[in-house]
Amino acid sequence: MRTFIPENPGDARGWQLVDAANKPLGRLAVNIANVLRGKTSAKFDPSVDTGDFVIVINADKLCLTGRKMTQKEYQRYSGWRGGLKTFSAETMLEKHPERMIMEAVWGMLPKNNISRWMMTRIKVYRGAEHPHIAQKPVAAAF
Question: Please, what are the domains in the chain?
Answer without folding.
Answer: 15-64+97-139 (3.90.1180.10)
